[in-house]
């Protein structure tokens, strides 16, 4: 990797099944490069489902198109049963086990709570990921760094576990830490453990959940690892008009707002902060910037052109019957409360539709993206 070449960071946010949209964007970008071209990204930062995508792409930093093809192959063949125990027996026995564990004496260690058993996801990640490839790509200079962010239930901090070149230092900021680690499936399971939906994962002596929960500064891992440019692929449409809510919000409306807040609101604030800082730095002379060790960080924020909810309503019947029944028991309608359904609908038809949407959006922004990446 040329030392004078700007380091471009790929930032992939979380969003459950919605992360298939990111695959479509990356597919479009990969087609603009030769078949055996290395990745245009030197740094990868992922949270929740975005972390799973980041690991897969970073493992093939020396051959970008191959990594994207593998990622698309995995996503387009996903079923809910590959993510969580979706059968009647599997779901009922898991929930029964959760209930029985909480009737035991307090000196018995209770398992972390989650409505869905995501053990199948662990098996899938162990099958498709070769974590040793990350260290190989780093040693070859194809990969500068990769971070996976999870939230510590013990400290309440956002912890970014990173792997990369030796010059990357650990960091400690308000509610945010960066810790060097050899990334494994445990880090991905922790980062993608959506609260209440999937159980927390233990790393060391602490339990960790979805990385979006306490992530007050989503751009920080990219900046701390030395990014000069950041491409953000968000999973929340930023320009949709809010529905006219004339009645009191129910469980579904509250759940949808909470999910969107967890996965997006802090990113919006962080981007506003970055824009203000860039404007301030742009007014300073080059010498003054160099003396302070500060630089303008270019960024492109890409997000869906359409809402995912109509697609979730169209394909909600593909959701396993037991999953639909469980949602109804908690007061949710899989079809009408599509905002929540869109996060857990890991079914081929829905996933392929999201990949196509991401591909089309990237093609529409081709001029902007090409100029940014080049």
TrEMBL record:
Q: Where is this motif: GXSXG?
A: 46-50
**Pfam families given in the database record:** Patatin
Q: Which domain of life is it from?
A: Bacteria
**Lineage, highest ranks first:** Bacteria, Pseudomonadati, Pseudomonadota, Gammaproteobacteria, Vibrionales
Q: Which SUPFAM superfamilies match?
A: FabD/lysophospholipase-like
Q: Which UniProt keywords apply?
A: Hydrolase, Lipid degradation, Lipid metabolism
**What is the protein name for this chain?**
Patatin
Gene Ontology biological-process entries: lipid catabolic process
Tell me, what is one Gene Ontology molecular-function annotation carried by this entry?
Answer: hydrolase activity
**Where does the PNPLA domain start and stop, copy by copy?**
10-225
Read off the PROSITE patterns from this record: PNPLA (PS51635)
Catalytic positions?
A: 48 (nucleophile), 210 (proton acceptor)
